[in-house]
Design brief:
mainly alpha; about 65% helix; about 0% strand; elongated
């Protein structure tokens, strides 16, 4: 059993040097998937991508039903400012500072985990692939960032789940007289629970998987937190550590493969559409400015909007960019003076309506309700 020899004994007996950026064990000792697991991984990957493309295609066709065209010139001018907003999450810190900090920890970890998950999948599937050899001197900092952000995401997610489900602050919902889509009041909480559970399992399993590797191969100075947890597994045999790693790998990678199609359906798709909103939103003199009407164009059969799909494409995209956090409602003068108006409810109702009738709208059919009927029913 190659795991019965401690890694430092192996290092002392080998002739090749161990560079400072490499983990303190030979690269040949990293864990890999079995052939059966590799086949299962590619089947699961194909299934996940298939359903994700189906949903993404439907969303694209829905947005194409909206009026107007995208101005790529605006996107070129906003590229760097949109990237800066996405990375810094600057707009969210204006109110609810402490929850915004926890949210930022999760968001930054989620963005970074795009690289982490790719690296883990490649190392697990391809026996000859080693991240340390590929990244060279950047391998250590890469592992350190993954180690710290993993724990940051777990702490942030735990704090937000406790806040939402135990403390139940009133600013995470609308007053009872505000007419939300019937499925929204319970659906948002359910969506938050599903996504919170996914993050806890996905990030937690990946973090534990690294601790299992370290327990079998020696402490990694670039993963101080996982190395600390690895002390709990020091008495496990090499076979037990291998089994534990495989379980943690499938919990981590399996949950992300299962979550990708659901992510496109959930409110957390804002992680993708919020940056697009920053980037592509048509230029306006003010937030409330409407598109100009060309009364001289005789090809226009109807002015204004009768149904949801008659709105501008950017107004449809707003429904997907909304995280349903109710921040806009919290600073809305009309809502705060007790009126039956909520800007959050408007976008939330649009999103739930698109989830329900999206397939028909994407296929070119008219939505079942006019905007007036829609507003009278839900807002």
């Amino acid at each position: 059993d190659k795991y019965t020899t401690r890694p430092y004994d192996i290092i002392l007996n080998q002739s090749s040097p161990i560079w400072w950026w490499q983990p303190p064990y030979p690269l040949s000792m990293t864990f890999h998937l079995t052939l059966a697991e590799t086949i299962l991984f590619f089947i699961a990957l194909a299934g996940s991508l298939y359903f994700a493309f189906q949903i993404a295609g439907r969303i694209y066709r829905i947005l194409r039903r909206g009026q107007g065209e995208i101005d790529l010139g605006v996107a070129r001018k906003r590229l760097f400012s949109s990237l800066a907003k996405t990375i810094t999450l600057q707009p969210t810190f204006r109110i609810r500072l402490v929850p915004s900090i926890f949210h930022a920890l999760i968001a930054w970890a989620f963005i970074y985990y795009l690289l982490v998950n790719l690296a883990d999948a490649l190392e697990g599937v391809f026996a000859g692939f080693h991240l340390s050899a590929l990244l060279g001197p950047f391998s250590g900092p890469f592992r350190l960032a993954a180690d710290l952000l993993s724990v940051a995401a777990l702490v942030g997610m735990a704090a937000l789940l406790i806040r939402r489900f135990l403390f139940k602050p009133g600013n995470l919902t609308a007053r009872s007289e505000i007419l939300l889509h019937p499925a929204a009041r319970t659906g948002i909480r359910r969506d938050s629970a599903i996504v919170g559970g996914f993050i806890i399992i996905h990030v937690g399993a990946r973090f534990l998987g690294q601790s299992f590797i370290i327990a079998g191969q020696g402490r990694d100075p670039w993963q101080p937190l996982a190395s600390g947890v690895s002390a709990l597994w020091q008495n496990l045999s090499g076979s037990a550590l291998t089994i534990a790693f495989h379980i943690s790998f499938w919990l981590a990678i399996g949950t992300i493969l299962a979550f990708i199609p659901y992510f496109l359906y959930s409110k957390h798709i804002h992680l993708f559409f919020a940056p697009l909103n920053f980037l592509l939103k048509p230029e306006r003199g003010s937030i409330g400015e409407l598109n100009a009407l060309d009364f001289e164009d005789e090809t226009i059969e109807e002015f204004g909007a009768t149904r949801l799909e008659d709105l501008g494409w950017e107004q449809l995209m707003d429904a997907y960019a909304c995280i349903m956090c109710y921040r806009c409602q919290q600073v809305c003068p009309a809502y705060n003076t007790g009126k039956v108006l909520s800007p959050a409810a408007l976008e939330i109702n649009k999103r739930y309506f698109l989830n329900r009738e999206g397939a028909a709208i994407a296929g070119g059919a008219p939505s079942s309700q006019t905007l007036l009927e829609f507003c009278l029913l839900y807002t």
